[in-house]
Design a protein that fits this description.
6 strands, about 0% helix, mainly beta, rod-shaped, about 100 residues, 6-stranded mixed sheet
């Protein structure tokens, strides 16, 4: 997503991207592995007449955790996850800590 325009006398140029992909292996218990990548711009130089921090218009206060202390601006995040499902076992899911 790209945000552009003006606010006051400053030019807006901000971006954000997110992707989640996974693959189920053809093995017993159907193991599934995946990766999630999120990134959003932040302002590189305060006072330069440009607003480069991504503004999530309707932010989810707990995008990454229930604590709600992070937002979708000025971030880089990459995490791996795995899980399994099978007829005799309940589904499990593990999400790693951010790698970036």
């Amino acid at each position: 997503m790209y945000q552009s325009g003006k606010v006051g006398n400053k030019t807006i140029g901000a971006w954000a991207v997110g992707s989640l992909g996974s693959y189920t292996l053809g093995l017993p218990w159907s193991p599934r592995v995946g990766v999630q990548i999120d990134a959003a711009s932040g302002d590189r130089h305060a006072g330069d007449g440009r607003v480069e921090t991504f503004n999530p218009l309707f932010p989810n206060g707990y995008y990454f955790t229930l604590a709600g202390y992070t937002g979708y601006a000025n971030l880089r995040r990459c995490s791996a996850h795995w899980g399994s499902s099978g007829a005799k076992r309940p589904r499990t899911l593990y999400i790693s800590r951010p790698m970036l």
